[in-house]
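Budget justification note: compute hours in this period were largely spent on complex prediction jobs such as the one shown. Inputs:
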Amino acid sequence: MRVTIQWTVAAVLSIVSIFPIIQSTIQSYADFPERHPCYRECSSDPLKSMTCGYNFTLEYFWVLSKACYECPNITSDCSRFDCIPADGVKRAIAVVNRMMPGPAIRVCQGDTVVVDVKNNLYGEGTAIHWHGIHQKKTPWMDGVPGTTQCPIPAGGIFRYEFEVPLGGSYFWHSHAGFQRGDGIFGSLVVRQPKKNNSLYDFDLPEHELLIWDWLADLSLPVFLSHHHADGDNKPRGVLINGRGFPPGFFKDFGDHETIKTKGKPYVPLYEVRVDQGSSYRVRLISNGVLNCPLAVSIENHTMTVISSDGFDIVVYAGERWDIVIRADQPIGTYWIKFQGLMDCDDRFTSAYQLAVLNYNPVPIGTVPSHNIRNWHEAAPEKYGLQLNPLNTAPGVEGQYITAAELNSAQDDDPEILTKEKADHQFYLSYDFNPIDNLRFHGPHIPIRTVRKGFKLYTPQLNYISHVMPAVPILTQPESMSEMQFCNDKSMKVNCTAEYCECVHLLKVELNSIVEFVMVDRGYTFDANHPFHLHGHAFRVVAMERLNKSTEPHFIKNRDEAGLIPRQTLKAVIKDTVTVPDGGYTIFRFRADNPGFWFYHCHITFHVEVGMGLILQVGNVSEMLSAPKDFPKCGNYLPEVSNPPVYYQENTHSISLENGSNPHHPSYDIMTTTDSSLPSKHSSKPKPSKGKSSASFNLPNFLALVIIMVNFITFMT
Ligand SMILES: [Cu+2]
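Corresponding output:
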C-alpha cells in the first residue's frame, strides 16, 4: 500500500484571534506564545511577512520547585508561573524561560525569526539548533558549536536571525552537551496560507505534542555512571508536553480502583480537547533523548498521516509526524497512549506515558475511568497498519509501512531520483564496536579485561569517533588545518583494532547529487539510530533488512549485481531517518547549500561520543561569509622559546603492551610543547620540536589521536 505524505505543503487554518499585522517589528511574548503577534492567519502576500522576536533565557532549574507551591496535592498550583511539574518526580533540569518544553515559536512561511539567547547556565557554553530549518542564507545560524559557531559563553547573549522559507513542523533544541535531554527544546511550527482542500478543520497550537523519554536525573551523571561504571542508559519514563504520571504510578492500585476512587495526587496530564464532528491536525514532534522510540495510538480513534489511511506510528528521536484526528466517537474521554520501545520496553524499564483526548464539554481534568496500569496495556489496542515500524524494512510480512515506502507530494528536482549514479556515494556503516575507546576505556581499563557490566561498546561511523573542533569550521576556516580532518579513506591505521578519533569530514561539490548508504552492521545490539542531516532534506530511496547482521561489502556486491533498486519517483523527503538492524537505508539529496553541516545520530549519548560527521558542501570560497562582527574563539597554545618540562603521572602513554603495570602510576617526561596530546602509541619521549604544536595548529588536542598515530607511524 502506498500513502502520500504532504510533508511541507499541508494547508493551515488558524482560528484563534487574529492579531494586527505589524511588519518588521520585534516583539517578545515568550511566556504566551499563542499571544505573539506572529501567531496569525498566514497570508500568501510576501509583503505581509513579519520579523518575529523571542527572548530565551537558559538556566538550570528544578522540577517541583518552590514555584509549584503545593502541586500536585493542589492541582491548580501545578499551573502557576515558573512551576515545572513534569511527572511529579523532583530532579534538576535545564530550561528556557522556566518552561519545559520551552517557548514555542509559531510563525508563517517567509517570516524572519529573531531569538536573543541569554545563557545563564552555570559556567557552561550553549548553542541553539533549529532542527529542520536549512539556513540557506545564514549557515552560521545553524547552532552547532565547533561547526557553525562558537558556543555562547556562560553569561553571554547571542542573537539568532534567520528566515523560515518552508512550512512544516520543526523544533529547536540546544546542540551543546546534554542540555537538550534535560529540557532545552521547544516547538517551531511554520504555518502556510490556508488551502481550501484542507484535510482537517483545525490546526491549533495546543495540538503540538512534544514527546520524549525522561531520565531520573540530569543526563550528565547518568552518562558518566554508564560510561565509567556500570550505570545503565535506560530512560525511566516518558513525558508528553512536559506532563505525565510518574513511573510505577499504578503499582498500588487494586483491581477495581480507579484514579478517581484511589484519590492519589498526580500532576494533571496533558489534554487534547476536541469538538465532536471536527477534525484536527496534530503535530507529533519527538525530542527523543536515548534509545526509546515511541509507539503512539489513541483509543477508538484512527490517526491519519496527512492524506493517507490510519496507522499506528513509531516516532524516533528527531522525527516529526503530522497526523489528522477525526473526533468521530461518542463525546467522552479517551487515553492517548505512548508506549516506549527498545530500551524503554518490558525487557528494561517498561516506560510508557498517557495523555488525554477530551471531547467538549467534558470538564477539564477528566480522565478515563479505566486504568492503563502497565506497559503492556499502553500498546495500541489493535495493530492495524504500523507506520515507520521498528527494525523493519519493506517486504516484511504484516501490516507495516516503512519510511522508504512513503510518497512525497513534492516533485521538485527530479534529477535527484532519476540520475542513475550519484555524483558522490558514501557507505557509512556503524555498530557498537568493542574497542578501547580512550574516553572511557584505554590502556588502564581495557574493554577485554573489565567485568561484563563495565564493558562499554563504542558507536562509531566507519570505525571513527568524530570530535568537534574547538573552532567553528564554517566561520573560522583559516584556523583549521587539513591535518585535523579524516575519514575512512585517509586513515592509515586499522581502526577496527585501534580507537580512532578525529574531525570526521566528508566533502562534496556544490550542487552535486549525493547518495548515503547507511549500513547498520547490527552485531552488538538491536539498537536503532535515527540519523539527522543539517542544512538539507533528503529522499529516502531504498531500505532493506538483510539479516541479523551484515557488512557494507555485502551491500556493495548486491548493489553491483543490480539487486538494490532505488525509488525513482516521489520518494519521501525527510531529514531524520533510521536503518533496520543488519540492513541499510539509502538516501539522496542535492548538495545545494554551501557550508559545513553536521550529520549525526540523534541519540544524545551516541552523538556526544562521536557518532556523527561533518559534511562539507562546496569549497570555502563558495560559502557565504558570516557577519564581520560574528564571535570568534579558539585555542591558546603559543610557541615558547624555552619549552617547559613536564612531569606527568598516569598518562595515556602507559600501555599494557609496553609492559607497564596498569595498576601503578608510571612517569613519562615529555619535553615537547604538545605534551598534553594523548600519545598512546609512544612510550618514549618525543623529540622536542618547537614547531610541533604550531605546525598542527590544533584547535582541540583530543581531535588528534589519529593524526598523532599517523605521525608517529611515519616517524618510526
Ligand atoms: Cu545512535
